[in-house]
Amino acid sequence: MNFTEIAWQVFNTSIEDYHVLDDVNTLINNPFEKDSLERILYAKNWIDTVQWHLEDIIRDENIDPTEALQLKRTIDASNQKRTDLVEFIDSWFLTKYENITPKSDAKINTETPAWAVDRLSILALKVYHMSLEANRESASEEHRQNCQAKLDVLLDQKKDLFTSINQLLTDIENGNVKMKVYKQMKMYNDDSLNPILYQKGQK
């Protein structure tokens, strides 16, 4: 299997494992070997899967405002973990390709391999949930047909994303693309960068 096939398989293992209990408070039980790429990919998708369901919960119109605020903070923390893990995956790729010398005319891609992997992880969640809707017996036939049409588009997107990621990795390996990573430097969780937080401390 190539990289994207491995990643897709790992993502779907994570999604299936989560839905055994379908509970955002379920602790991760990563089945892959320590320090393996598969273990990192599983952890990445587990964060995405839990956050997917947190985003569902917070959209309940009848949610208690206090609970919604707590959930928002949980989602913020999850976003930070997600970003940190994406950057960790990019570090893994940087190490993998550290002995590759880019050609003098090497291009710089608009996104790093790990951020493309991030999109693939989210896409796996979309495919999983859209497939459920396309086959939900309690839904109307019109609903199922509409969801099947959307699922077909998602599966087409999956094929294209597989091709794009594999091509990007090949271009890096061949020196045709220079891998360059920028830290995201998110500001909203930082007491020294978010004005709402640091102005509060000055009062």
Structural class: mainly alpha
Tally of distinct domains: 1
Work out the helix count. Answer: 6
The averaged pLDDT comes out at 92
Pfam family, one: DUF4254
InterPro entries: DUF4254
Protein name: DUF4254 domain-containing protein
Would you mind describing this structure in some detail?
Strands 1-2 form a two-stranded parallel ribbon. The longest helix has 33 residues, at 141-173. With 203 residues, the chain is mainly α. The protein has helices at 3-21, 37-58, 65-96, 113-134, 141-173, 195-202, and strands at residues 107-108, 177-178. Helix content is 67%, strand content 2%. The protein has one domain (3-201). InterPro entries: DUF4254. This is DUF4254 domain-containing protein. It holds the Pfam family DUF4254.
Task: Outline the secondary-structure elements.
Elements: H1 3-21, H2 37-58, H3 65-96, E1 107-108, H4 113-134, H5 141-173, E2 177-178, H6 195-202
Parallel strand pairs: 1-2
Helix pairs in contact: 1-2, 1-4, 2-3, 2-4, 3-4, 4-5
Protein name: DUF4254 domain-containing protein
InterPro entries: DUF4254 (IPR025350)
Keywords:
6 helices, 2 strands, 203 residues, mainly alpha, two-stranded parallel sheet, 67% helix
Summarize the structure.
By secondary structure, the chain is mostly helical. It is built from 6 helices and 2 strands; from the N terminus they run αααβααβα. It has one domain (3-201).
